[in-house]
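Changelog-linked ticket: iron/sulfur cluster example.
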Amino acid sequence: MKIAFYTLGCKTNQFETQALETLFEQRGHTIVPFDEFANVYIVNTCTVTALSDKKSRNAARRCKKINPQATLIVCGCYSQMEPEQAREMCGADIVVGTGCKGQIVELAEQAQAEASFPGGSAVQEAREFEVLPAGGLRGRTRALLKVQDGCQNFCTYCIIPYARGRCRSIPLTEAVRQAAFLEKEGYQEIVVTGIEVSSYGIDLPDHPSPAALLAAICRAAPHTRIRVGSLEPRTITPEFLEEVGPYPNLCPHFHLSLQSGCPDTLRRMNRKYTPERYAQSVEMLQAAYLGCAVTTDLIVGFPGESREDFEESLAFVEACGLAQVHVFPYSRRKGTPAYSMPNQIPQKEKEERSREAIGRFHTLHQNFLRSKVGQVLPVLFEQEKDGLSSGFSPEYCEVRVNEKELHNQLLSVRITGLSEDGWLTGSILPENP
Ligand code: SF4
């Protein structure tokens, strides 16, 4: 059979798609691009914002236009929350939620018998991590290694705990096995990903910590860059830094979710830290990894966020010296506590705050990039863009050089300049092999 995938949302979804592609290939099926004729289309959906829901539906609707006879499988967070909509509005033949994705191959193969698997509540009962195989090379430089699923933090704006259920972690030995496998497969970078990696291990017998996990992965794939997807500020402690410090293959790039720099807003969000605690985590990282990139997400226009709260949030971010900030206007999700909070901010105001924040943080990102000019950075090249080869440094700075056919090569590059669009330029050092 020909199978085509469309993936929306986070790195966990990307990992799961990659794993499913491998499972299909192991059964002798062929993966084709999404806009080509296929027997089975699989749309791995996202529900983090109302826009994600819409994009998920649009992607699903496109499939039957290419092949009306195709089997359409809709899986992931949107279909977990809205299984009926996925069936009715998207025309899905099979709806799978966020659990049991490993059964999709079988379901696809049984599609003529109109097999169907219920989306909806099953994931709330899930207590064990579903181990999916790590993917093989398909022109990709970076591999994703999913180590954790679910979240029980219940931030008041977030639908994920309802969509993905409780925290489930991959056993340490399995994470180690997959990391070693990915290095053997030729990947040069592994991104350790999950819905809430900071809760890694709380459900496992010996409660291994996220630091123990990262250290074990770094040891298992010593010649591969290890990048962490996203962490909560509480994870960064002296003990954490001591445990991961000895591993030079851990990338000095840490994404610490902030969401707001205003203490009152953080409380209403049910985020369990203060701006002071966040700043301490950033300082610890910046002291332990000189020149490291600490990046974050920020929500603007959360219910009750006054103009002063917004200003306070922006000023806090600027004072932290972060490398990059991803700004999101608050998206109201039915079924979350924040949906019914008073003082919702009008859409227009949310968009204006978002534009203002993006403008201010552009300078912050440019300053971080400028600090790299004149340095030599190891760059892992991934693709060609506008006639230039493009890749990433360990700090996740995009670097472009005027050379061709460098895909999957790790080369030392002297950084010579930066563009207004957020990337660095450089030239490859002659002593590279
Ligand atoms: S930590 Fe909060 S924002 Fe992140 S997935 Fe869990 S509930 Fe959502």
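Closing comment: Example verified and attached. The chain has four domains: 2-123, 126-251, 279-371, 376-428. The domain at 376-428 is CATH 2.40.50.140 (OB fold (Dihydrolipoamide Acetyltransferase, E2P)).
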